[in-house]
Design goal:
Distance between the termini of chain A: 29 Å
Largest sheet of chain B: 7 strands, mixed
Structural class of chain A: mainly beta
Helix content of chain A: under 10%
Number of helices of chain B: 0
Distance between the termini of chain B: 39 Å
Structural class of chain B: mainly beta
Largest sheet of chain A: 6 strands, mixed
Strand content of chain A: over 45%
Order of helices and strands of chain B: EEEEEEEEEEE
Strand content of chain B: over 45%
Oligomer: heterodimer
Helix content of chain B: under 10%
Number of strands of chain A: 9
Radius of gyration of chain A: 14 Å
Radius of gyration of chain B: 14 Å
Chain lengths: 113, 121
């Protein structure tokens, strides 16, 4: 069971804007830990899309943007394109008695209608 | 261009030890600039972090797997490895190795293609 909560799926027509939420709590996102977002085509390696809440690695289109507030974060895709159809995962960190650990969201499947 | 490639048995028997190796080509696992991680993903499910190792040999593990996991590094071969003991069917997954930049906000940005491990008798 994933620590961070994401909607199972979102969909939109080409050109539309979709958002994906990522909900955590006071021991992870709410502590101030960064949130990162990955895009993954099933069966292949994840691709880093957003890091440090709202930063795009080189080569990632500016159609993708991230934000964070309190215990939640969001990924927005504007101008949705067919190639955006994939699974999207948020990732943050959690404080445990054993130390820092990575936590992931349950994943959101984006469908382009 | 740095590339990561996982290798190891595709099938492991229950109760035995899963062993995987990640070979880094075009780069050095001995560099203090990077750390090296393992992740896994059961079919149709989400990603799970297993742990990571630094060039110094220092490690961090997922608390839920800590008692069964060992990650090691071999700078002479530019490889790092994963050992997971006492496996069960729930350890069946696509296993990925990845590279992260020490001290950066950016997480793992370079991943291997993944290798499927099935736990079955």
């Amino acid at each position: 069971q994933s620590v961070l909560t994401q909607p199972p799926s979102v969909s939109g027509a080409p050109g539309q804007r979709v958002t994906i939420s990522c909900s955590g709590n006071g021991s992870n996102i709410g502590t101030g830990y960064d949130v990162h977002w990955y895009q993954q085509v099933p069966g292949t390696a994840p691709k880093l899309l957003i890091y440090g809440n709202d930063n795009r690695p080189a080569g990632v289109p500016d159609r993708f943007s991230g934000s964070k507030s309190g215990t939640s974060a969001s990924l927005a895709i504007t101008g949705l394109q067919a190639e955006d159809e994939a699974d999207y995962y948020c990732q943050s960190y959690d404080s445990t008695p054993s130390g820092l650990t990575y936590v992931f969201g349950s994943g959101t499947q984006v469908t382009v209608l | 261009q740095v590339q990561l490639q996982e290798s190891g048995p595709g099938v492991v028997k229950p109760s035995q030890t899963l062993s995987l190796t990640c070979t880094v080509s075009g780069g050095s696992v001995g560099s203090d600039t990077y750390y090296w991680s393992w992740f896994r993903q059961p079919a149709g499910k989400g990603l799970e972090w297993i742990g990571r190792i630094f060039a110094s040999g220092s490690t961090n593990y997922n608390p839920s797997l800590r008692s069964r996991v060992t990650i090691s590094i071999d700078s002479s071969k530019d490889q790092f490895s994963l050992r997971l003991t006492s496996v069960t069917a729930t350890d069946t997954a696509l296993y990925f190795c990845a590279r992260g930049l020490v001290g950066a906000r950016q997480p793992e940005d370079l991943w291997g293609q993944g290798t499927l491990v099935t736990v079955s008798s």
